[in-house]
């Protein structure tokens, strides 16, 4: 049996988790900082770093406590060291190094984006191991989060090649900005998801950006601007002198929920269309890489409409669907500890000079 302690602090969640044999999550502690960042309607890096510093050791202690374990029982310490906010990453990486050194355990460095693609393999108890099989490779990977909207050709959990990515906003960022436009609060994704259920997704015809024919890239900034104009009307004047004629306060509740539903339909539809394009292109151009599974991860994989649409898509295209349980969609350390299991068995360890890096390997 291998027990790995995972640590995650790349953005505004301080998290620690213990995972057994790469799949069974024994504890999963996430201290969210949403309340601290809410009034700024986005993550303030310095506030995030300070909060990580206060939370990191209590969160790690709690993860051991919840799993009924001590540090002695752990085989290795894994940490997400890239990509993310540098000041946030430094806190988790420093804690992981200090623990690894003082307890004489191996240290494993994990890429946060790769870890999101591993989250679908995690289960909450031993008996779910058989009912939730692992992805089959080759697979098509999709990370949809606040920082990423990327499609991957996956040959294994560690061999991933980006084949399409957003050229402007990430989809989660677009949700968060849409929630600002609709004055709903922060983070916007879950709030839009919730109210969209009461709205008419066909009420407003918002754009689904497909970019050039054949492109597997995404673009969400046009959708955000279209939503802004749908709410406020086109501005009169240009640049700093632009004046909008209306604002959210002038709309009815029904109009607001219809706008949320129409935004969500357009955002998710754009993703599904790109998935279709990707599968068709790979099947016809490189059949040896034709995906057997569709592997999804990242905060937006919690979205109810996305979950419904990808389920239909996978069925129609005869792909095995690997999408995380709700608890593992958002930033968490279980995905870090889970993926680290593969590195552990490959004897692929980091040394104590491990850096924190703002960008992803992929
Ligand atoms: O993966 P994550 O926790 O952090 C990053 O690595 O970015 O993703 C956070 C993003 C936020 O933009 C949040 O609004 C979005 O995921 N999100 C959702 C939902 N839950 C979280 N977006 C749409 N629908 C949801 N239910
Ligand atoms: Zn993330």
UniProtKB/TrEMBL annotation:
Gene Ontology molecular functions: iron ion binding; tRNA N(6)-L-threonylcarbamoyladenine synthase activity
Requisite cofactors: Fe(2+)
Reactions the enzyme catalyzes: L-threonylcarbamoyladenylate + adenosine(37) in tRNA = N(6)-L-threonylcarbamoyladenosine(37) in tRNA + AMP + H(+)
Keywords, sorted A to Z: Acyltransferase, Cytoplasm, Iron, Metal-binding, Transferase, tRNA processing
Major localization listed first in the record, in broad terms: cytoplasm
Cofactor note: Binds 1 Fe(2+) ion per subunit.
Subcellular location: Cytoplasm
EC number: 2.3.1.234
Manganese among keywords: no
All residue ranges annotated as the Gcp-like domain in the record: 25-337
Gene Ontology CC terms: cytoplasm
Annotated substrate binding sites: 143-147, 176, 189, 193, 303
GO biological process: tRNA threonylcarbamoyladenosine modification
The organism's place on the tree of life at top rank: Bacteria
Residues noted as binding Fe cation in the record, renumbered to the chain: 112, 116, 331
Family: Belongs to the KAE1 / TsaD family.
Cross-referenced NCBIfam families: gcp_kae1, T6A_TsaD_YgjD
Function text: Required for the formation of a threonylcarbamoyl group on adenosine at position 37 (t(6)A37) in tRNAs that read codons beginning with adenine. Is involved in the transfer of the threonylcarbamoyl moiety of threonylcarbamoyl-AMP (TC-AMP) to the N6 group of A37, together with TsaE and TsaB. TsaD likely plays a direct catalytic role in this reaction.
Protein name (database record): tRNA N6-adenosine threonylcarbamoyltransferase
Species annotation: Poriferisphaera corsica
Lineage: Bacteria, Pseudomonadati, Planctomycetota, Phycisphaerae, Phycisphaerales
């Amino acid at each position: 049996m291998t027990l790995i302690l995972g640590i995650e602090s790349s953005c505004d969640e301080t998290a620690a988790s213990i995972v057994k044999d790469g799949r069974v999550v024994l504890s999963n502690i996430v201290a969210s900082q949403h309340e601290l960042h809410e009034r700024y309607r986005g993550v303030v890096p310095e506030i995030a770093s300070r909060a990580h510093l206060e939370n990191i050791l209590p969160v790690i202690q709690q993860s051991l406590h919840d799993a009924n374990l001590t540090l002695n029982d752990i085989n290795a310490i894994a940490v997400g060291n890239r990509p993310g906010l540098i000041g946030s990453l430094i806190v988790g990486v420093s804690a992981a190094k200090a623990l690894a050194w003082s307890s004489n355990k191996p240290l494993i460095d994990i890429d946060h984006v790769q870890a999101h693609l591993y989250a679908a393999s995690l289960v909450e108890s031993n008996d779910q191991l058989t009912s939730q099989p692992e992805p089959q490779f080759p697979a098509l990977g999709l990370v949809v989060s606040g920082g990423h909207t990327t499609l991957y050709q996956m040959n294994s959990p560690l061999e991933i090649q980006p084949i399409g990515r957003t050229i402007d906003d990430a989809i989660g960022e677009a949700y968060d900005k849409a929630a600002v436009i609709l004055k709903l609060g922060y983070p916007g994704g879950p709030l839009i998801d919730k109210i969209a259920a009461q709205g008419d997704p066909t009420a407003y015809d918002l754009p689904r950006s497909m970019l050039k024919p054949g492109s597997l890239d995404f673009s969400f900034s046009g959708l955000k601007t279209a939503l802004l104009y749908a709410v406020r009307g086109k501005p009169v004047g240009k640049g700093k002198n632009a004046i909008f004629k209306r604002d959210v306060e002038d709309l009815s509740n029904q109009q607001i929920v219809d706008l949320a539903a129409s935004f969500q339909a357009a955002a998710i539809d754009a993703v599904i269309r790109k998935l279709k394009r990707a599968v068709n292109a790979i099947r016809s151009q490189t059949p040896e890489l034709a995906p057997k599974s569709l592997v999804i991860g990242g905060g937006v994989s919690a979205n109810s409409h996305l979950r419904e649409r990808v389920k239909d898509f996978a069925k129609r295209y005869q792909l095995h669907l690997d999408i995380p349980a709700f608890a593992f969609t958002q930033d968490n350390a279980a995905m870090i500890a889970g993926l680290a299991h593969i590195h552990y068995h490959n004897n692929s360890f980091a040394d104590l000079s491990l850096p924190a890096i703002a960008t992803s390997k992929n």
